[in-house]
Amino acid sequence: MSIMVPSTTPALITSGHQALDSALHQLGQAADQLGLDDGLRTMLATPRRSMTVSVPVRREDGRLDVVQGFHVQHNVSRGPAKGGLRFHPGADVHETTALAMWMTWKCALAGIPYGGAEGGVAVDPARLTDRELERLTRRYVNEILPLIGPEKDIPVADVGTDERTMTWVRDAYNLNTGYPVSGEPMAPDGSSGRADATARGVRIAVLAALGRAPAGTTVAVQGFGKVGAPLAQFLAEAGCKVVAVSDATGAVHSGGGLDIARLRAWTAESGGVAGYRHADALARDDLFELDVDVLIPAALEGAITEANAPRVRARLVVEGANGPVTPQADEILHAGGTTVVPDILANAGEVIVSHLEWVQSLQPCSWSPGEVELKLSDLMRGAFSEVTSLAADRGLTLRQAAHVIAVGRVAEAHQVRGLCH
Ligand code: NAD
What we know:
Helix content is 43%, strand content 17%. It is an alpha/beta fold. The protein starts with a strand and ends with a helix.
């Protein structure tokens, strides 16, 4: 038996410590604003439950590898836990905790009754066959089974996972528990429009933050995955000029605006933006320094740091990814007059639409895509206006204001419900 040491593609490695430091820094600032006592601060800074598991995977050649998996429930004081499942070589317990914490604040800010969770497996899915990936997913679910379930913790796709992964998760859960497949909230097909919901939500945040007609607005998007690719397309359809996008393989640029549908077709075929012939190639990280109106990091944490923040020229940064701007970079961007729309506000679309799905399954009722879009838009715009008003009243950045509102709501739930929550 061998312990699988995940492959380390340097570009894809994130530092879990850095993500958790950022999350704790943001929490600390909000707690200061809210005047929270030490006990409550400590409760909010520590996850309610955290599990590290060893996941054996039988490889096609008969070898047995073991990878590490994590599942963290940060907070459940406002409702059942909700969070992504990430397959990435850099996943660790610190990163998983940070992502779970951000999810708690995201749900509270959007006003939906969920707590925050996250799962992670330290593996590069591109290096496993489909069968290995399925075995790994099912075994991981077996290991974390006591924590998850339709009424207590509902995983959704995140980096390195997709709807196929989530179908394996649901099926493994169902097989292990006997929980019925049909008519349950973790339904395989889901509500109208969940797949692109995060991107649709980020588009709403971008347009709200622009505060003017989008025609001609230049945009650069880092990350061309489940969030970045549909987002680039939606922004182009709204009239923006998406001049550059990047992914792990490289970056492409076209001053006249990229043909996003064509670029998506290319990446589906070739596995990445590199080699796309209808635009200029760009060094991947030069994307951050382009002279564009809007910069959207939609890849991983820690993309904009104190090292590259001074060279960011966009006046608006909208966080499609979780934690892409470090606290040091935040200060530099703020001092330089760049507004950052924070992750917990900008990328809440998926969790909002998941909640709408849950409501439909409980009632039961079925809303049209138009009705779902309208509700998503109302919730996102409502949260946006609460955050911008508080920021203006108290002289806070949008991130600080968003955290004050969200942390305040969770703290209040603890105070109302007592120590057991
Ligand atoms: P994904 O795995 O579908 O896509 C990630 C993309 O980032 C890929 O295109 C990858 O090539 C690219 N990438 C990785 N390293 C890069 C680098 N150094 N430079 C440029 N590009 C790089 O993941 P996703 O679901 O699109 O998630 C992206 C981010 O959005 C993550 O932070 C995730 O937590 C966050 N998020 C996702 C959702 C969702 O619904 N999927 C919801 C909320 C937040």
